[in-house]
């Protein structure tokens, strides 16, 4: 008799993990606390409940990284993605679903699976033995959050995200911006040039503050508390506190010299910091925000050097429980300090229904392979799944780790392809072709 796999949380990640492991022949116990214990966002006791939007975003598997993730999940027999397609609603190129029939169908399929047993209970500890996957999501129960914190240390588990926008490096105008760390700090040239700086004149700064104050903002969801910590105030809240606050905070112009115009002292400077080891993504330092997405794009494109910027991810602040995966997890999603415990889904620091389900797919397969004593080849980095898992378990900067959507900035660049906007279509097609081929090889290697 093989060992059982315990999965905690029957959301996007947990349901997918259970499905994948059960299809490999492993006996699964899926522990879901709803409906006995509720969260502020879920409404039902169904598995796979979508708590907010009903969209799985773009379904374009040639030009969009989320669409590619859909494709890979379909190729791997994904429960979430195939059920989403069964309940698809018209939404142009996006995959929107009829949410209640979708969740009812996930619940019915998982319940009917001969290898899965559902146990409605809250799990409040990290067990010392057995094989476990924790997929408890952004609203992980309080008691379990405390247990995770006791294991990982208080600074490795966050209860809110504070997401600053992330820009594709190649879309920053380096004829305006320049590379320099404040006061050229650092031992190596790389460290001395760790930031991209965008200068502002007084007029540009004043217009920027006006735009920030006027921009549309999103409200916190019911049940979320607007607990702003001084370290992560939204920029618009900083601007409300005083027009000069940002200039003395994240936009202070000190310790920097603009090589394009060394005589002219910038009135304010927006800094961007490298966000991944590949150097393809930069986050705007200190620019976490509750501005609506449309407003963010408009306001941030007024920053000199970012007029043509493309954003891999826009900013936000949400109630979101997530661990510092780059320091805590190995490349098989196991807790380094307790390898019988895996994490999956949004709690690992990915963001969104699709990304969470994808991490569930990987965790389910990895745990099942381990239980069955099967070899599982490493997930190829050039796939959408591989790019994401590689980012959260190693590629991301651990110190500033914040949840991440899948995007092409996480992919290793391909040699010999044209950069910039002009080459984008060919580049994305080449990335998705490469990914599909690697993903098929990886699936085939598992038999
Ligand atoms: C208010 C809000 C709005 C959101 N809006 C969107 C959106 O529009 N689009 C989007 O893509 N993403 C959105 N998200 C993020 C979304 O929740 C995740 O992307 C996705 O649901 C994560 O999947 P998951 O499986 O990791 O977590 P979930 O789907 O949340 O599943 C986790 C499950 O674990 C259960 N659980 C928690 N603790 C325990 C415990 N101790 N014992 C047993 N069970 C437990 C929960 O009841 C839940 O069923 C939103 C999140 C929140 C909080």
UniProtKB/TrEMBL annotation:
Please state the protein's primary subcellular location.
cytoplasm
Residue positions binding FAD: 9-14
The processes (GO biological process) annotated in the record are: tRNA methylation; tRNA wobble uridine modification
Q: Which is an annotated GO molecular function term of this record?
A: tRNA (uracil(54)-C5)-methyltransferase activity, 5,10-methylenetetrahydrofolate-dependent
| Pfam families cross-referenced by the UniProt entry | GIDA
The cellular component terms of Gene Ontology attached to this UniProt record, alphabetical and capped at eight, are: cytosol
Cell compartments where the protein resides: Cytoplasm
Q: Main EC class of this protein?
A: transferase
List the EC numbers from the record: 2.1.1.74
Q: Which InterPro entries match?
A: FAD/NAD-bd_sf, MnmG-rel, MnmG-rel_CS, MnmG_N, TrmFO
The UniProt record lists the MnmG N-terminal domain at: 5-374
Out of the domains of life, which is the source? Bacteria
Catalytic reaction equation(s): uridine(54) in tRNA + (6R)-5,10-methylene-5,6,7,8-tetrahydrofolate + NADPH + H(+) = 5-methyluridine(54) in tRNA + (6S)-5,6,7,8-tetrahydrofolate + NADP(+); uridine(54) in tRNA + (6R)-5,10-methylene-5,6,7,8-tetrahydrofolate + NADH + H(+) = 5-methyluridine(54) in tRNA + (6S)-5,6,7,8-tetrahydrofolate + NAD(+)
Q: Which UniProt key words apply to this protein?
A: Cytoplasm, FAD, Flavoprotein, Methyltransferase, NAD, NADP, Transferase, tRNA processing
Q: Kindly list the cofactors needed.
A: FAD
Function per UniProt: Catalyzes the folate-dependent formation of 5-methyl-uridine at position 54 (M-5-U54) in all tRNAs. NAD-binding protein involved in the addition of a carboxymethylaminomethyl (cmnm) group at the wobble position (U34) of certain tRNAs, forming tRNA-cmnm(5)s(2)U34.
The entry's family comment says: Belongs to the MnmG family. TrmFO subfamily.
Q: What is this protein called?
A: Methylenetetrahydrofolate--tRNA-(uracil-5-)-methyltransferase TrmFO
Q: Which organism is it from?
A: Sagittula salina
Gene symbol here is trmFO
């Amino acid at each position: 008799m093989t060992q059982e796999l315990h999965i905690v949380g029957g959301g996007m990640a947990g349901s997918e993990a259970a499905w994948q492991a059960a299809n490999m022949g492993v006996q699964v116990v899926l522990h879901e606390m709803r409906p006995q214990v509720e969260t502020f966002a879920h409404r039902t006791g169904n598995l796979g409940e979508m708590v907010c939007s009903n969209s799985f975003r773009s379904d374009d598997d040639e030009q969009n990284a989320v669409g590619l993730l859909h494709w890979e999940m379909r190729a791997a027999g994904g429960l979430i993605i195939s059920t989403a397609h069964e309940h698809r609603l018209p939404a142009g190129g996006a995959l929107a679903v009829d949410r209640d029939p979708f969740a009812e169908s996930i619940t019915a399929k998982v319940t009917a699976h001969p290898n899965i047993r559902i146990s409605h209970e809250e799990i409040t500890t990290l067990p010392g033995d057995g094989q476990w996957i924790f997929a408890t999501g952004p609203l992980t129960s309080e008691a379990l959050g405390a247990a995770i914190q006791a294991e990982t240390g208080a600074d490795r588990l966050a209860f809110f995200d504070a997401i600053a926008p992330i820009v594709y490096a190649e879309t920053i105008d380096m004829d305006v911006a320049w590379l320099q760390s404040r006061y050229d700090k650092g031992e190596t040239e790389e460290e001395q040039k760790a930031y991209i700086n965008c200068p502002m004149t007084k007029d540009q700064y004043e217009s920027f503050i006006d735009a920030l104050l006027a921009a549309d903002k999103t409200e916190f969801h019911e049940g979320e508390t607007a607990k702003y910590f001084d370290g992560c105030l939204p920029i618009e809240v900083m601007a409300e506190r005083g027009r000069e606050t940002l200039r003395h905070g994240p936009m202070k112009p000190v310790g920097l010299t603009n090589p394009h115009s060394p005589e002219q002292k910038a009135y304010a400077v927006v800094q961007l910091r490298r966000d991944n080891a590949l150097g393809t993504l930069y986050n705007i330092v200190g620019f976490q925000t509750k501005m609506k997405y449309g407003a963010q794009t408009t306001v941030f494109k007024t920053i000199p050097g970012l007029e043509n910027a493309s954003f891999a991810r826009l900013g936000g602040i949400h109630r979101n429980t997530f661990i510092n995966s780059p320091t805590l997890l190995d490349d098989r999603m196991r807790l380094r300090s307790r390898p019988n415990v895996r994490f999956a889904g949004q709690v690992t620091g990915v963001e969104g229904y699709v990304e969470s389900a994808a991490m569930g797919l990987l965790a389910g397969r990895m745990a099942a392979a381990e239980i069955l004593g099967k070899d599982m080849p490493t997930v190829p980095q050039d796939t959408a799944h591989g790019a994401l898992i590689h980012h959260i378990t190693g590629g991301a900067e651990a110190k500033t780790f914040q949840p991440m959507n899948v995007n092409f900035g996480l992919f290793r660049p391909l040699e010999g392809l044209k950069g910039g906007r002009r080459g984008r279509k060919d580049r994305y097609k080449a990335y998705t072709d490469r990914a599909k081929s690697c993903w098929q090889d990886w699936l085939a290697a598992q038999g």
